Fold:
Amino acid sequence: MREPTITGLAVGLYATGRITAAEALAPNKLVEVRIATGRHGRVQRDIAIVDAVVTHDRSVGARALWKPESLYSAYLAFADPQSIGLSAIGGLLQPVGRRDGGGLAVQMAHDDRHALLSLHAPIAPGMVRPVPIASWQRLVADEPVDVTLEAGTVALDGERELAFEHGQRVQMVLRENAFFTVDVTRCMAVAARDGLLRSTPVVHPR
Structure:
């Protein structure tokens, strides 16, 4: 979240060429989701810029992401311990910054008996729930990871949902340098360093 006036200044300085792309832009990661039907069938692709979460739920639109028992696994482009939502699960296990290499994959346990630990995570505003965790590991860029659940849904950034059925293969792939955004903090630091918002008063003769 950024104050819009400062964001507008930073974007304007870049858009007008006063700050170069090398200084103004920052690379971002994303998680690519692939759902393949058959060995040589059609492959459906979509992306998540924060998290792709696999659930046991079989129907799109059920919106059961706030129920820990419905969660199967999560694939995170970054994991911030200060965040809220399902990415908070990864952030409280092993933080991964937006600019760090790699991401994080978290496997949830079916119940506490099969869990390595139980994590109390803020999965929604005002909602802290215990989430049974089976394991977690770093995601390496461009290395596909197979989802072992046979049927369910994939929620992308908590919004768009994709359903998959028996016989379909689901893979997650972390992509680095996938898209670029204006780095507001760095742009404003360059503006201060180079005096980009300074001007010399014009004195008019009387």
In short: The mean pLDDT is 92. Residues 8 and 67 are 39 Å apart (CA to CA). Helices lie at 4-15, 21-24, 87-93, 184-194. The chain has one domain: 28-194.
